[in-house]
């Protein structure tokens, strides 16, 4: 028996899952890793820790499933996108902490790019100019970290996002690649040609030599080094950015299909097929995947703080002891009593992209309790998704008829019911909610012939529960009106 192993390297932890040919989960393992916040708005990871935790979770999953390393047919990798790593090509050691996608330190660089050629850059790269972009992180490190500047000038360093870092480590330093889906959200890739964009490289003075080779999302990139991968040579055959992987795992394979991942942030993706729709209104246009001879584009909106708002209720306010308690509190009241919570802890995401906004709770009265705050926090996750998809519908010309939900937040019946209510369409939760890992597994399996086609993997998608809208249009409009007013009050706070 052969299996496909998926490594899902997220923002706060690493999950490894092993699937069989019928897409049964045979084994899994998960561990968090350390988050570093050296200054307000800065977020960093230790790339070595990510590597060590990833390898440890692979070993644990193999052990849990009583599976030998040589029984793995192929490995698929999905990852937090845009997080930027520099390492020494000889020693394999990172020269500084990785700057995480959530980090806001490059705002000045973004504003300068926007002023100089904002419309041109956005149209060429398919990405909006925001601090998430890896390109601006590279420039910031070259300007502010002497070790990075010296290492790049002397040809000693390589750059990569987390997918690139993991492949490089797994292959013993033999393979330096990324895929189109990851590159498409870095601001480095031309959306039409799928090559690196010379103009942005010149503008930011980023040397091409440090960049990974661009490859499709489903092919054999190299074999694991047996000294690293427990004595076995296994094909590394799939790479997808986490949100594209979630859409792939959700079976959003036709244009007009859409998913949202409720994770640390919320990530809304709509498939636009072979059609590239240039970004605007805070919505960007990533490559979803390039596999089996076809390339699909999409539209994506992002809310930086989604599930993280519930973590804040637990860790910041210490109002709850675990994340499940938020739903329990919310269900004990019939509504939020007019309380609206805009979780703009690091700014507002799509379709606003206001880095100066900050979190706001409005509508508080003497009758407000922790139940109403918890409910408003959960509702905020759904409102942000609604805002992004409203813009996507206008841009793409596709009318959203249903939404597929995944991620940790999708386990909440309350959240998905409110999402259906506020969108006015059904929301579907799949039997396997770990669709991000599954997407990477599919990409790897397709590359080595474990599965034959898009049609075959699409047959594996199964619904676990469907949520139908339960409120009328008048009530929906009323709720959205007050949400919009709350968003306006959080906007531009730091200006």
TrEMBL record:
Annotated glycerol binding sites: 81-82, 242-243
Keyword ATP-binding: yes
EC number: 2.7.1.30
Keywords: ATP-binding, Glycerol metabolism, Kinase, Nucleotide-binding, Transferase
UniProt cross-references to SUPFAM superfamilies, sorted A to Z: Actin-like ATPase domain (SSF53067)
Activity regulation (record text): Activated by phosphorylation and inhibited by fructose 1,6-bisphosphate (FBP).
Family that this chain belongs to: Belongs to the FGGY kinase family.
Name recorded for this polypeptide: Glycerol kinase
Organism whose genome encodes this protein: Acetobacterium woodii (strain ATCC 29683 / DSM 1030 / JCM 2381 / KCTC 1655 / WB1)
Phylogenetic placement of the source organism: Bacteria, Bacillati, Bacillota, Clostridia, Eubacteriales
Gene designation: glpK
């Amino acid at each position: 028996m052969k299996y496909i192993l998926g490594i899902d390297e997220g923002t706060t932890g690493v999950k490894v899952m092993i699937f069989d040919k019928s897409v049964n989960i045979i084994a899994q393992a998960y561990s968090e890793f350390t988050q570093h916040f050296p200054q307000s708005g800065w977020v960093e990871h230790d790339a070595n820790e990510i590597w060590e935790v990833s390898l440890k979770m692979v070993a644990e999953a193999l052990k849990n499933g009583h599976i030998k390393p040589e029984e793995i047919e192929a490995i698929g990798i999905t990852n937090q996108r845009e997080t930027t790593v520099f390492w020494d090509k000889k020693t394999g050691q990172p020269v500084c902490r990785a700057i995480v996608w959530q980090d806001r330190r490059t705002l000045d660089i973004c504003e300068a790019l926007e002023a100089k050629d904002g419309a041109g850059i956005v149209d060429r790269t398919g990405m909006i100019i925001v601090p998430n972009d890896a390109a601006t992180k590279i420039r910031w490190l070259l300007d502010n970290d002497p070790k990075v500047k010296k290492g790049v000038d002397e040809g000693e360093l390589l750059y990569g996002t987390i997918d690139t870092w993991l492949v490089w480590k797994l292959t013993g330093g033999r393979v330096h690649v990324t895929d189109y889906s990851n590159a498409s959200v870095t601001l480095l890739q031309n959306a039409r040609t799928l090559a690196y964009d010379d103009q942005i490289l010149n503008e930011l003075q980023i040397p091409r030599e440090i960049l990974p080779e661009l490859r499709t999302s489903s092919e054999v990139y190299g074999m694991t080094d047996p000294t690293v991968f427990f004595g076995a040579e296994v094909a590394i055959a799939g790479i997808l950015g986490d949100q594209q992987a979630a859409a792939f795992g959700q079976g959003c394979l036709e244009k007009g299909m859409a998913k949202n991942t409720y994770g640390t942030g919320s990530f809304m993706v709509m498939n636009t097929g072979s059609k590239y729709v240039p970004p605007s209104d805070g919505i960007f246009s990533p490559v979803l995947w390039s596999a089996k001879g076809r390339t699909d584009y999409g539209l994506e909106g992002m809310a930086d703080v989604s599930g993280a708002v519930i973590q804040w209720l637990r860790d910041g306010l210490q109002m709850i002891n675990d994340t499940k308690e938020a739903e329990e509190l919310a269900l004990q009241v019939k509504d939020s009593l007019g309380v609206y919570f805009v979780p703009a802890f690091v700014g507002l995401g799509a379709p606003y992209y206001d880095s100066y906004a900050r979190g706001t709770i409005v509508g508080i009265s003497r009758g407000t309790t922790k139940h109403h705050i918890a409910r408003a926090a959960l509702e905020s996750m759904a409102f942000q998704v609604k805002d992004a998809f409203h813009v996507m519908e206008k841009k793409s010309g596709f009318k959203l008829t249903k939404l597929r939900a995944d991620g940790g937040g999708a386990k909440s019946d309350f959240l998905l019911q409110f999402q259906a209510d506020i969108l006015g369409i059904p929301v579907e939760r799949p039997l396997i909610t770990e669709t991000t890992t599954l997407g990477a597994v599919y990409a790897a399996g397709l590359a080595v012939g474990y599965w034959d086609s898009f049609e075959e993997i699409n047959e594996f998608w199964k619904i676990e529960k469907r949520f139908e809208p339960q409120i009328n249009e008048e009530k929906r409009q009323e709720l959205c009106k007050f949400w919009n007013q709350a968003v306006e009050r959080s906007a531009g706070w730091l200006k």
